[in-house]
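Sanity check. The docking grid for NDP depends on where the pocket ends up, so I'm generating a full predicted complex first rather than guessing from homology. Inputs follow.
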Amino acid sequence: MSARLIKGPEVAAKIRQGIVDELKGLTAKTGKVPGLAVIIVGENPASQTYVRNKERTSKKLGFHSEVHRLPENVTQEELLEMVNRLNMDDDIHGILVQLPLPKHIEEEPVIHAILPEKDVDGFHPVNVGNLLIGAESYIPCTPHGVIKMLEHIDYDLKGKNATVVGRSNIVGKPVAILLLERHATVTVCHSRTQNLAEVCRRADLLVVAVGRPEMIKGDWIKPGAVVIDVGINPVDGKLVGDVEFETASKVAGYISPVPGGVGPMTITMLMVNTLQSFKKKYKLV
Ligand code: NDP
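Predicted complex below; grid placement will be based on this.
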């Protein structure tokens, strides 16, 4: 392996320590702590794990953490009522509805019901719009984590050819916007992109969020490129990324492994957004 690893846990730990240090002063000033409320509907095992991790991390950092577990058969109205209650709760600064929701519930009205100033996932159209025009917003957590990993290695994006594979609303599109804002020349690829390998080979920076195990091969990568693998795919009881690590790590200059890459950044950036909301509420920014 010639590539240097971008280790998510290391970057995340540094950011989390910064939060703990900053919070001491903020709590001394306000007598309050940031509050994060997570709503989870049903028993999806992966969602349960994500929510437990969010709860654990909030508590570790000294936040107030609430998890509202609603039954699978909850109605849309009951869920919206819960969101409204949390919107009005002064001790809650961030609200997150764990996705996916059961089929009988429409996701959009639920996300739209969260007050934009408490939308720490950054999925509300007001925050999405602000992100697009470069105004202050909550940056979606995984894309924000990708940017922090690039900052960690002092990667100067100006003028670089950045290729993002995947165009989802939660990863690909916001990553592309953030890279563009930092003056990269951005190409966004998706399932209809032709000659994907060739497009990837031109990239100085390759961010991959596709959800297909080891789809990006080593010979799709420009020698020395920076590769951020967002993919998390369970294969034979193990987690693998969207990039074939074995071959890609021989060619890339830097690469984020899976596991041990982007994963831990997502929850960390959720905490960053919750802290930001708390600071705004008490006019500490
Ligand atoms: P989505 O399924 O929403 O989007 C996948 C994207 O990949 C789509 O834009 C799709 O194109 C594109 N795609 C699919 N197949 C191909 C192909 N053969 N060639 C090129 N593009 C293709 O996934 P997400 O963005 O939600 O997640 C992507 C991955 O990232 C998953 O593995 C997920 O688990 C992981 N993830 C990790 C997180 C973390 O914390 N580390 C957080 C969120 C996601 P099209 O639009 O044309 O359909």
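Relevant for the grid: The first helix runs from residue 8 to 30.
Also worth noting: Residues 142, 165-168, 170-172, 189-193, 196, 209-212, 230-233, 262-263, 266 surround NDP (CB under 6 Å).
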